[in-house]
Design goal:
- The protein is of the alpha+beta class.
- Helices cover 41% and strands 24% of the residues.
- It folds into two domains: 35 residues; 115 residues, Roll (Nuclear Transport Factor 2, Chain: A), CATH 3.10.450.50.
- The protein contains six helices and six strands; from the N terminus they run H-H-H-H-E-E-H-E-E-E-E-H.
- Helix 1 crosses helix 2, helix 3 runs antiparallel to helix 4 and helix 3 crosses helix 5.
- It is globular and about 55 Å long.
Amino acid sequence: MFDYSHAEVATTLGLTEANCRQALRRARHHVRAERPRFTTSTRDHHALLEQFYSAAGSGDMSGLLALLSSDIVMHTDGGGKASALLVFGADRVARPMVFGVAKLKTLSPQHRIVEVNGIPGLVSYVDGRPRSLFAFDVDGEGLIGPIYIVTNPDKLAHLPPPLS
């Protein structure tokens, strides 16, 4: 989308060029805003991580939706070497998570919780190599906020090995 002019985006979305410029300005301001992160105890974060993986792994959509904030965003980073997504909204995030965990389970992964950028993250290993890294922030209500998934093998190379 960032390769298109404001006029092209406006035509595609059926908006005015001025609206598109304003939306971009607000988005940039929002991204740059320094909002304090909500702090959750490591124990609570681990518990939420386990609840999430259990609900997603069993296909429990209602249980999974109960864990997600309504304005959740899922960011995935494949680095051009694996698929990548940017998904908004709890119902739109839950579906690919259930599908992704089901697909991952067919590979018989090993899991290890590691600290990533100050928060617990779940590394999934397949054949002894990191396949993905999954982490999320917790919002002020104790719900899962932004989700971050990295599948780019170059970015996973620095992760510790699986536990024996």
